């Protein structure tokens, strides 16, 4: 009778890419479970573990033996298996030979559709331990790794060099070679707190022993919540509120095995720089969490997560503050230098920035969008010239130092620089709102000029890309055309804008008169938008027949 044991698999590596760690962990655990299920091996549950130096999974209550399998192979029909004298035909003899038995050992299978010869046998179960190595190799080979690397003179490829492997089945080591490393029962703790090997007696003690002895929190989910808790606590202690971005939280969790929160300070003078730039500096370069007061204003404080519990925490704090200072100084320098030149004076620089090889530069795009933006603004009761002005300046911040360093600040910095250049409030706000909505559920442009510019920019892109035959295919949509279409729909519908989409598409195509677009481009985009409209209303729970009546009408 088969027993059950816990199965631990751990692959020890050099530091894994932090932004991919969570997905690699989930895929590895899923791959192991899939392999067990394909072999019809029963188990209770799977717990993934992931740190910068390891991928692991603990499978509870795995059967030690694969159960015996009853097989049934159907042969020729009885009518074709025997002649009139009842002697086996060539068909029956050939089937018996393929089953390695005499004809007399074959059975008979009767159904409503007829009767056939059949061979029934029992395939003895295999020991689970003999199947695990191949399951691991298949799971590793299937990991979503865009670019694998090789190390030393070994023929193996993986996301990072592999240094150790643990395969424990209960108390038993399953011996195998995984990516050039022999499996065993020894794992490694924290690189500094406990660099010595840790021998595991059983699979089930893995997480507890690694944390208590090895100074490693192996569970990604547990470690992430611990980081979240400590960041909030650190902010509370200084009377502020930590702003925790989930993507940053995941990345920080992927960088540490033993997280320790550190609260630091930077010079108040940097608060003269737009807060978005300071936050981008802290998040992107240093992986710090920023802190705000009760009014949501940025405080000159930050919270860093260290990977070591130092005996001299003041030295660690001083080091973090020291490396942040020049980064903030760079942001302050960009802010100072960028304001020496107006957005309008940067317009000609856009001639050197390609929007799309066949569709011209960003300067060309700005000129096209200006016509359409002005038209939409006028139809919405806004000043046409303001719509044109907003579009002409819309991409100028892309050639500033600040946006060059932090591309995610496009539009945001445009609004700041427009205010500095004494552009109207409507134009300045539109420069920021042109990118809205950025993702599903994001806010929509709130101002008329912002709505006009956002719609015009996206329709220009849709018509242009469709016009050169680069329509989305399958899951490939490099220009984000599906997102652009949904954004246009959301803005028009949810902001209740009285606009003729088909006419605006024709206007957008007319602006491309010298680029030789497919004459049917605007019509193709209109059909594309209608398809997205069906999906939009389905997500809202509208009846399918009602959608078809509305769309057809």
Largest sheet: 7 strands, mixed
Top-tier CATH class of the largest domain: Mainly Alpha
Residue ranges: pLDDT <50 for 5 or more in a row?
none
Number of domains: 4
SS-based class: alpha+beta
CATH fold assignment of the largest domain: Hypothetical protein af1432
Using only C-alpha atoms, the radius of gyration works out to: 32 Å
Tell me the distance between the termini: 68 Å
Taken from the alpha-carbon principal axes, the silhouette is: flat
Instruction: Tell me which CATH architecture of the largest domain applies here.
Output: Orthogonal Bundle
Q: Enumerate how many helices there are, as a single number.
A: 19
Strand % is: 15-25%
What's the overall average pLDDT, rounded?
A: 93
Number of strands: 18
Summarize the structure in short.
The protein has 553 residues and is of the alpha+beta class. Helix content is 44%, strand content 18%.
């Amino acid at each position: 009778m088969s027993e059950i044991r816990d199965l631990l698999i751990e692959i020890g590596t050099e530091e894994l890419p932090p932004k991919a760690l969570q997905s690699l962990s989930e895929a590895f655990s899923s791959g192991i479970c899939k392999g067990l299920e394909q072999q019809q091996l029963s188990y209770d549950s799977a717990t993934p573990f992931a740190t910068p130096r390891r991928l692991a999974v603990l499978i509870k209550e795995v059967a030690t033996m694969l159960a015996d399998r009853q097989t049934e192979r159907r042969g020729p029909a009885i009518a074709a298996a025997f002649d009139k004298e009842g002697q086996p035909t060539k068909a029956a003899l050939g089937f018996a030979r393929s089953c390695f038995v005499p004809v007399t050992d074959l059975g008979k299978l009767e159904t409503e559709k007829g009767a056939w010869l059949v061979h029934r046998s029992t395939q003895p179960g295999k020991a689970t331990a003999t199947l695990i190595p191949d399951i691991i190799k298949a799971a590793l080979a299937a990991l979503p790794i865009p670019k694998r690397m090789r190390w030393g003179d070994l023929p193996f490829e993986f996301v990072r060099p592999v240094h150790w492997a643990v395969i424990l089945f209960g108390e038993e080591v399953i011996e195998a070679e995984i990516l050039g490393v022999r499996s065993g029962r020894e794992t490694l703790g924290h690189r500094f707190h406990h660099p010595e090997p840790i021998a595991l007696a059983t699979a089930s003690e893995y997480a507890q022993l690694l944390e208590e002895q090895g100074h490693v929190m192996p569970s990604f989910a547990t470690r992430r919540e611990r980081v979240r808790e400590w960041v909030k606590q650190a902010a509370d202690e200084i009377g502020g509120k930590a702003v925790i971005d989930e993507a940053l939280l995941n990345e920080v969790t992927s960088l540490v095995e033993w997280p320790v929160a550190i609260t630091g300070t930077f010079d108040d003078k940097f608060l003269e720089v737009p807060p978005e730039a300071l936050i981008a500096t802290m998040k992107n370069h240093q992986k710090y969490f920023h802190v705000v007061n009760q009014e949501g204003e940025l405080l000159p404080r930050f919270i860093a997560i260290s990977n070591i519990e130092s005996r001299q925490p003041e030295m660690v704090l001083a080091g973090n503050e020291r490396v942040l200072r020049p980064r903030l100084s760079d942001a302050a320098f960009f802010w100072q230098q960028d304001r020496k030149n107006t957005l309008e004076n940067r317009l000609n620089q856009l001639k050197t920035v390609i929007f799309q090889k066949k569709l011209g530069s960003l300067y060309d795009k700005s000129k096209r969008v200006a016509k359409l933006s002005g038209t939409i603004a006028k139809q919405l009761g806004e000043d046409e010239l303001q719509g044109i002005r907003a579009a002409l300046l819309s991409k100028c911040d892309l050639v500033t130092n600040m946006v060059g360093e932090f591309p995610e600040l496009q539009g945001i910095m445009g609004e700041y620089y427009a205010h500095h250049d004494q552009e109207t409030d409507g134009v300045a706000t539109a420069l920021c709102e042109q990118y809205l909505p950025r993702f599903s559920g994001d806010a929509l442009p709130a101002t008329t000029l912002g709505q006009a510019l956002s719609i015009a920019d996206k329709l220009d892109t849709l018509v242009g890309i469709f016009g050169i035959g680069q329509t989305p295919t399958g899951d490939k949509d490099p220009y984000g055309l599906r997102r652009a279409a949904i954004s246009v729909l959301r803005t028009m519908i949810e902001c209740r804008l009285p606009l003729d989409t088909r006419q605006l598409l024709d206007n957008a195509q007319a602006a491309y008169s010298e680029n030789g677009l497919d004459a049917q481009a605007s019509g193709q985009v209109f059909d594309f938008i209608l398809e997205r409209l069906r999906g939009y209303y389905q997500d809202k729970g509208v009846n399918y027949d009602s959608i078809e009546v509305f769309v057809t009408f």
